[in-house]
Design goal:
single chain, alpha/beta, 8-stranded parallel β-sheet, 28 helices, 12 strands, about 50% helix
């Protein structure tokens, strides 16, 4: 089924205290997505970030980022004071995350909340104890690891004393006792993180929005995973890596990308029937509805760089686990809802693995028109897509669409114009046209970064690979998600058949949502009916024609005459309405709406062309014709009312059908009465 969504990291949400988190702004963003017809919210990994602040370099593959804990929620629970949060210095730029200040201030406030939580020991503490027991497989090692990092002043575990670096039992027991309060603190942070995240995810799902999570293929070297389970990785006898991950040189980087992540010991994983991977992916499905696996090509072949090297120039390709891993995952977890990140240097064997697993892969439009990428047109131009893929304008690693258009050569810009079949000099307009290409494509799912809908330049770029210090910092400004910002999103989603079915009509008794100053109430008809209305006569034209018809009728016949005729027509409408409603309810909703709107357009056009004065004169002479005119006026007025009510389309279809029927029956009845009189 066709659908669309938005890519926005949680950290990039607007919020009061320095970084996007699970605060009210996250719930407002879900509302924004629902209001504008989006079915998915894609986020970046939620893991606790380490040095460099990258969500792809986390201290644990299972733990969540404490920065995302909402301080407002802790205030609401009475664990923090608002004045303390307001007084904290999180930085002065609301469009930027200052990670240095975040580290110094956020943990101090979270520690206050923990101390009060631990002292009170209310019903939440019972839930905390249950959480400890349920997540013990990873939580104990993670909390001890973080407490040890604090104790050793932030040093990587590979630099710790040998007894604890190598996890000797006596050392583990010693530090567990010595650091027990700090261990509890980190366990509490995970309890609070997952409690708040589960609430937010549940809310999103209730609104019809699914969460697409992101799994980095690799874990960080400085992580609880690597320290606690060295057998999972290519380590020597001293628990130090023999090779690390990265990417070879390409058109974007002359020396390649040296990520530094430890590589997996795939023979060990195969021997254990991929138990750790099953546990990892299973945990992800507890957090997300869909998972995007980063660097999927590493499961076919991975790039191995000697651990001592300073660049990625001299690595080599090694064979990965292939289809065996995914057979094990499917057997243990059932059918997987996965998006394959297969970007970059792709071989035929990678393509074969993607076909074998059957997961949708990614298409990026910025790659389609980039002369540096020789595979661009073949892999990324929309006419080469099949349905089983996800199309993006760009990802978190790309320039924003507006920034990209500013930076590409004229020849590449000309490629886009030739593909569109016309010149587009205004770059803001070109942003909309490239988004249109994505939405119009055959891809089942279309994901657009929020910055592109807002037409933001590279100041809003999330990440520039192989650089440090300026990434993962961009945030939405307060009130930036205005109704106008969603107009393009909703229009293109609707135009290209990606609107979710459940938003086709507003639920009964639901308060209409504000669209903008010119549209005070949300339309309550089906999306198909709305499309037909937009393509036909405009809303204001329909209203003015209906009002004009009613005014002309009132001016022509006397007030008493009009009242009598109108009452007759209304009575006939009520009598014939039940029969018409039964028939209409059985018909297809879209067909009914389309037929009604076509009738409205026809009537509106005829009313404009008619001489209302002559119609009024005829009405004045003949009671029967007055009734007919009144019946038509009522029908037109009902047409205008169609835009302002929240009932079902089928019910509205019945009203219009009844209105037309009443016009005919009312005319016959009135003619008979006139003859008798």
């Amino acid at each position: 089924m066709r659908a669309s969504g938005v890519l926005l990291p949680v950290s990039s949400l607007s919020s009061k205290y320095g970084i996007g988190c699970f605060s009210k702004e996250a719930y407002q963003f879900v509302d924004f997505l629902k209001k504008n017809g989006q079915s998915y919210w894609q986020i970046l990994p939620l893991g606790q970030t380490s040095y460099g602040d990258s969500p792809y370099q986390s201290f644990s593959t299972f733990a969540g980022n404490p920065y995302f804990i909402s301080l407002e929620e802790l205030i609401r629970k009475g664990l923090l004071k608002k004045k303390d949060c307001d007084a904290a210095d999180f930085g002065k730029d609301p469009a930027d995350v200052d990670y240095g200040k975040m580290y110094r201030v956020r943990y101090r406030l979270l520690k206050k909340a923990f101390q009060l939580f631990y002292d009170i020991k209310d019903t939440e503490f019972v839930k905390f104890l249950a959480f400890q027991e349920r997540e013990a497989d990873w939580l104990c090692d993670y909390a001890l690891f973080m407490a040890l990092k604090d104790y050793f002043k932030g040093k990587s575990w590979v630099e710790w004393p040998d007894d604890i670096r190598l996890r000797q039992p006596e050392a583990l027991k010693k530090y567990e006792e010595q650091l027990k309060e700090q261990i509890l603190f980190y366990e509490y942070l995970q309890f609070e993180f997952f409690s708040q995240w589960e609430q937010l995810k549940s809310y999103a799902n209730e609104q019809g929005v699914k969460i697409i999570g992101d799994i980095p293929i690799y874990v960080a070297l400085d992580s609880a995973d690597a320290w606690a389970q060295p057998e999972l990785f290519q380590f020597d006898e001293d628990c130090k890596p023999t090779a690390v991950a990265g990417c070879p040189p390409d058109g974007f980087s002359a020396t390649g990308q040296l990520w530094g992540n430890p590589l997996y010991n795939w023979e060990y994983h195969k021997h254990t029937q991929y138990a750790w991977w099953i546990r990892r992916v299973g945990a992800c499905y507890q957090m997300y509805d869909v998972i995007r696996i980063d660097h999927f090509r590493g499961f076919d072949e991975y790039y191995s760089i000697p651990a001592k090297d300073q660049t990625a120039e001299f690595g080599k390709w090694e064979k990965g686990p292939g289809i065996g891993l995914f057979d094990a995952l499917n057997k243990a977890l059932g059918d997987l809802d996965v998006i394959v990140e297969d970007l970059g240097y792709i071989t035929d064997s990678v393509r074969e693995l993607v076909r074998a697993v059957g997961f949708p892969n990614m298409k990026v439009l910025e790659f389609a028109f980039d002369a540096r990428d020789s595979s661009g047109p073949r892999d990324y131009l929309p006419y080469n897509y099949d349905k089983n893929c996800v199309v993006y304008t760009g990802t978190h690693d790309n320039e924003t669409l507006r920034g990209w258009l500013d930076s590409i050569p004229k020849a590449d810009y000309g490629m886009i114009e030739r593909y569109l079949g016309r010149r587009v000099e205004d770059k803001e307009e070109m942003v909309a046209e490239v988004i249109r290409l994505a939405q119009a494509s055959s891809a089942n799912l279309c994901i657009i970064p929020m910055q592109d809908y807002l037409v933001l330049d590279n100041k809003a770029r999330i990440n520039e690979p192989s650089t440090l210090g300026k990434n993962w910092r961009w945030r939405l400004l307060p009130n930036q998600l205005t109704p106008q910002a969603g107009l393009l999103m909703k229009k293109l989603t609707k135009t290209y058949g990606r609107m979710p079915v459940q938003t086709a009509r507003v639920k009964e008794n639901e308060k209409p949502a504000e669209e903008d100053t010119e549209k005070p109430a949300k339309q309550s008809v089906s999306d198909e009916a709305s499309n037909q209305m937009e393509q036909g006569s405009g809303k204001e034209i329909q209203k003015s024609v209906s009002d004009e018809a009613v005014n002309q009728t009132e001016q022509s016949s006397g007030k008493e005459t009009q009242k009598t005729a109108s009452d007759e027509a209304v009575n006939q409408t009520k009598q014939s309405g039940e029969k018409a409603a039964d028939e209409t309810a059985k018909s297809d909703e879209k067909s009914a709406a389309k037929t009604i709107l076509e009738d409205l357009e026809k009537v509106a056009a005829e009313a404009v062309e008619k001489d209302f004065g002559r119609a009024a004169e005829v009405v004045g002479k003949d009671f029967g014709r007055a009734a007919a005119a009144a019946g038509k006026a009522i029908s037109r007025a009902a047409g205008a009312a169609l835009e302002k009510v929240s009932d079902k389309v089928a019910d509205k279809a019945a009203e219009f059908a009844a209105g037309k029927s009443a016009g005919k029956d009312g005319r016959k009845d009135s003619e008979k009465k006139a003859e008798r009189k």
